[in-house]
Amino acid sequence: QQQQRFVADASHELRAPITSIRCNLDLLAKSPDLPPEEAQAALADAQAEANRMGRLVGDLLTLARSDASRQSKQSQAIAVANGYKNRNEEKRQVDLDSLLLEVFRQYQPAQENGIDDARQQGPRLLLQHITPASVLGDADQLKQVLVALLDNALKYTPYEGTISLSLTTDERFAIVKVSDTGIGISPDDLPHIFERFYRADRTRSRDRGGSGLGLAIVQSIVQEHQGTIEVESTPGRGSTFTLSLPLAPIYFK
Ligand SMILES: Nc1ncnc2c1ncn2[C@@H]1O[C@H](COP(=O)(O)OP(=O)(O)O)[C@@H](O)[C@H]1O
Ligand SMILES: [Mg+2]
């Protein structure tokens, strides 16, 4: 039943960009003497919608893959219980500090290029604290988690705001915090933001190209790494996402 709902939601989400692409193509096809600026605008619009659709399909595939891998793990567990050998898990040691730095730098240039225009510069990005920490897992997936959290922070924080990143450890966990001074999340929305397709403000979030799948993907990756993701937020003041991942055992070093 959950799967049915997922398919229905996905189809619904795909319909909007398809409709918009169709409208623009119809316009171009039916009016050969459209002023060039208007024709350009229609093309650009169709392109943007096609890109959005591409991202959406990419996100859907990621989720479908992780659903499939969860199921195969369940059947593997049953196979193990029945005396079959476990397939080797692909787990590598990932240096979380290098990964965080890499993602941080990826977002930096946009800031440095900015002229005086605060609108171009966007919110300030700070690396508050970073400790060396290694975890076991898939570097690409963990990078995707960091990018998704940072993307949201940037998306939901006004230009004059600040986003800070930190990486600390306790005895057992590496802890990444992504804090922003943005619009925040209301207590009514907070329990739902990790659900597939959930957006606190459908109209506004759609403008900014979000599909509401980012945090669902984050959660599924984090669970696969035996970690947790938590959020605290005050509307109008900002949000803090806290990601905890089990540290790699010392003998892995
Ligand atoms: N840092 C944040 N500040 C405010 N709201 C957020 C933040 N991160 C996520 N949200 C809320 O959670 C919703 C779900 O996030 P996500 O799954 O990444 O979807 P998307 O970014 O595509 O809208 C967002 O639509 C937004 O309402
Ligand atoms: Mg997002």
Name the features.
8 helices, alpha+beta, 253 residues, 2 domains, binds adenosine-5'-diphosphate, 7 strands, Heat Shock Protein 90, binds magnesium ion, Helix Hairpins
How would you sum up this structure, described in words?
The mean pLDDT is 88. Helix 1 (2-30) runs antiparallel to helix 2. The strands form two sheets. A five-stranded mixed β-sheet has the order 2-4-5-7-6, covered by helices on one side. Strands 1-3 form a two-stranded antiparallel ribbon. It folds into two domains: 2-81, Helix Hairpins (Orthogonal Bundle); 92-252, Heat Shock Protein 90. The termini are far apart. The protein is α+β, with helices and mostly antiparallel strands and 253 residues long. Strand 4 (162-169) and strand 5 (173-180) form a beta hairpin. The chain is 51% helix and 19% strand. The site of adenosine-5'-diphosphate has 23 residues, from helix 6 and helix 8.
Bound molecules: adenosine-5'-diphosphate, magnesium ion
* Number of discrete helical segments: 8
Mean pLDDT: 88
- Give the proportion of residues in helices: 40-55%
Poorly predicted parts: none
Biggest sheet details:
5 strands, mixed
Question: In the CATH classification, which architecture of the largest domain applies?
Answer: 2-Layer Sandwich
Domain tally: 2
What is the H/E string?
HHEHHHEEHEEHHEE
Query: What is Rg?
Result: 21 Å
CATH topology of the largest domain: Heat Shock Protein 90
Strand content: 15-25%
Tell the overall outline.
Answer: globular
CATH superfamily of the largest domain: Histidine kinase-like ATPase, C-terminal domain
CATH class of the largest domain: Alpha Beta
Strand segment count: 7
Sheet/helix structural class: alpha+beta
